[in-house]
Structure to design on (652 residues):
């Protein structure tokens, strides 16, 4: 009995500090701390005040608000814009279906996407391009996500069908965006007219989707026992990693065009995508290789002792553990890929940043407003980068459940 | 005896670079026998047990398991591994899979069982090793003794003819050793053919049919537990036994 009482006394956790105590402990704990606090607080308040008053009263957002469609799709023909809408809507509905089927991280992504659609549909600005129809369309994407969610909840929907759908969307999307020669319904749209967020997302998503498997393959290639394979992978990785992305972009845009005959010339946007993909693949490969090395030999032995082949051991045991170990590094790699796509401006592709620049340069009046334009562009990049970072942290914690790896 | 041994080893040699780890091991194991291998560290006992399922390659001599000779033929190796379960000192459970998934992985992907059948067998095996309530946890949330029992269940799920144990209790806290040894004793009594590398002399005396004492890559002495404990012939065996039985 006495023992139990003593134990209870010991177990009592310390009370959480009150606000006053927190301030004392964290802001005024020493002379140096006190001085820092006293100096920094006015500075922070002054900066906040100036930024907020500038944004609300002095800033002139015309160069941003006048051209919403230009920022989103570039010069894509306005009468064909429905095609972009169809792709966006099919992504929305598949996102919803996947959310209903699997939940977890997809739930957060769906909610974020739905919120972005609603917010843009309800933006309190007057603009001819943001008419009733456009607002209705944007809002309907949120509804599509919800409809997809309820479809996904149905037992009849198989995971493999949804996966096939996700594989088909990029192909269908590229065909729809490019169009078909001599077609009445979807005439050809040259990629020189594509621009804005559309191009940024295409390069980023395409780069991520293609560079990831390529990076995994290169990582295995570098570890391979076959000297040709490991030699090739090592040279590829080291050459790409040793050269700035700008140089690779130039190489692909100029040298590739010089060597190939005119009729088989690869599209400019595809060349940019190849450059971004190879660049990101080389870095992913080194990340994945680090993860492969972190998998203990005992894991491989245990799998082999169960009669599993090398291939099954790799796919079922080694790769999942390796990828989980390097997920934060790979997520960081993809976020920088997303931001690095801005470099395609220098080979004449009007991505999101490129559109901003051409708007600024189109009118002397807008040159005065470049501050606002760049701030807006930075904000959009930050939002998407931060969402990616959030998603990767979510994924990490969901993969870490019950594990002490 | 006219019966064929299920494991037949003849003059097995193994080198790590210049180091001669196994120097001509001969051993025959018959169906249903429990063999205990013991000896000082570095004596080659772990290396030997690992050559039986080709986690280590022998360079000379002959190893035949269940009528299949171990050669470089990958199909032979995988066939033998399907028939021999192995339990490791460090458990080596797959940390990214739940307990049930750990057990069903190989039956589903190697034996091609339907998932449902594999899961039923997994639950039965977890009951056999005494931890059915841990089925849906992850290895990281289990104690060492529980992990090792899951590892035994995982090996048994492939329905092997032979079980190899490579120091299964050496990495365990003292209070967990018993639960693992009890499971192994049950398994031995059910008629499983087992080769166990261990220093648990109480277990060996109770369960082993024959014991082998390894030193410097060779079999110094072999015999029934009675012979080994009560009447060891070699000085080296006497010395080693006196050291490990002292406390």
């Amino acid at each position: 009995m006495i023992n139990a009482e003593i134990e209870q006394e010991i177990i009592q956790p310390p009370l959480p500090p009150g606000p006053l105590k927190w301030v004392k402990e964290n802001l005024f704990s020493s002379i140096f701390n006190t001085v820092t606090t006293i100096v920094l607080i006015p500075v922070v308040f002054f900066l906040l005040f100036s930024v907020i008053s500038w944004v609300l009263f002095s800033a002139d957002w015309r160069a941003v608000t006048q051209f919403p469609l230009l920022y989103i799709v570039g010069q894509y023909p306005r009468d064909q814009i429905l095609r972009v809408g169809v792709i966006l809507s099919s992504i929305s509905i598949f996102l919803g279906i996947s959310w209903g089927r699997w939940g977890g991280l997809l739930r957060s992504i769906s909610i974020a996407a739905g919120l972005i659609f609603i917010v843009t549909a309800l933006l309190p600005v007057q603009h001819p391009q943001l008419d009733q129809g456009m607002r209705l369309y944007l809002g309907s994407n949120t509804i599509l996500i919800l409809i997809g969610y309820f479809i996904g909840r149905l037992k009849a929907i198989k995971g493999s069908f949804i996966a096939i759908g996700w594989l088909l969307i990029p192909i269908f999307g590229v065909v729809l965006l490019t169009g078909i020669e001599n077609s009445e319904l979807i005439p050809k749209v040259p990629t020189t007219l594509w621009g804005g967020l559309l191009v940024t997302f295409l390069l980023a998503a395409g780069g991520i989707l293609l560079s990831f498997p390529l990076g995994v393959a290169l990582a295995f290639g570098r570890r391979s026992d076959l000297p040709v394979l490991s030699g090739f992978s090592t040279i590829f990785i080291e050459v790409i990693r040793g050269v700035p992305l700008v140089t690779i972009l130039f190489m692909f845009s100029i040298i590739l065009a010089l060597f190939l005959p005119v009729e088989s010339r690869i599209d400019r946007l595809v060349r940019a995508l190849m450059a971004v993909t190879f660049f990101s693949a080389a870095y992913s490969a080194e990340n994945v290789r680090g993860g492969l090395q972190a998998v203990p030999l005992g894991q491989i032995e245990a799998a082999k002792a169960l009669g599993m082949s090398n291939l099954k051991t790799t796919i079922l045991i080694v790769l999942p553990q390796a990828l989980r170990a390097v997920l934060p590094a790979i997520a960081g790699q993809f976020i920088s890929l997303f931001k690095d796509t801005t470099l395609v401006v220098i080979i004449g592709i009007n991505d999101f940043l490129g559109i901003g620049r051409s708007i600024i340069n189109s009118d002397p009046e807008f040159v005065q407003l470049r501050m606002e334009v760049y701030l807006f562009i930075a904000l959009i990049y930050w939002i998407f980068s931060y969402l990616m970072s959030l998603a990767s942290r979510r994924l990490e914690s969901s993969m870490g459940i019950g594990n002490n790896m | 005896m006219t019966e064929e041994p299920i494991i037949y080893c003849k003059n097995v040699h193994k080198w790590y670079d210049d180091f001669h780890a196994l120097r001509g091991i001969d051993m025959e194991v018959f169906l249903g026998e429990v063999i205990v291998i013991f000896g000082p560290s570095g004596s080659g006992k772990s290396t030997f047990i690992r050559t039986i399922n080709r986690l280590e390659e022998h360079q000379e001599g002959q190893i035949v398991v269940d009528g299949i000779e171990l050669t470089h033929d990958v199909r032979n190796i995988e066939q033998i591994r399907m028939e021999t379960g192995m339990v490791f000192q460090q458990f080596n459970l797959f940390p990214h899979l739940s307990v049930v998934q750990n057990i069903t992985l190989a039956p589903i992907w190697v034996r091609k069982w339907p998932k449902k059948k594999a899961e039923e067998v997994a639950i039965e095996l977890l009951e056999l090793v005494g931890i059915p309530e841990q089925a849906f946890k992850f290895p990281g949330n289990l104690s060492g003794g529980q992990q090792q029992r899951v590892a035994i269940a995982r090996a048994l799920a492939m329905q092997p003819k032979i079980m190899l144990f490579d120091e299964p209790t050496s990495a365990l806290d003292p209070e967990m050793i018993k639960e693992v040894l009890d499971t192994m004793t049950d398994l031995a009594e059910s008629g499983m053919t087992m080769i166990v590398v261990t220093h648990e002399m109480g277990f060996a005396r109770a369960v082993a049919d024959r014991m082998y004492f390894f030193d410097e890559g060779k079999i110094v002495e072999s015999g029934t537990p009675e012979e080994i404990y009560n009447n060891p012939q070699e000085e080296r065996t006497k010395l080693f036994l006196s050291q490990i039985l002292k406390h």
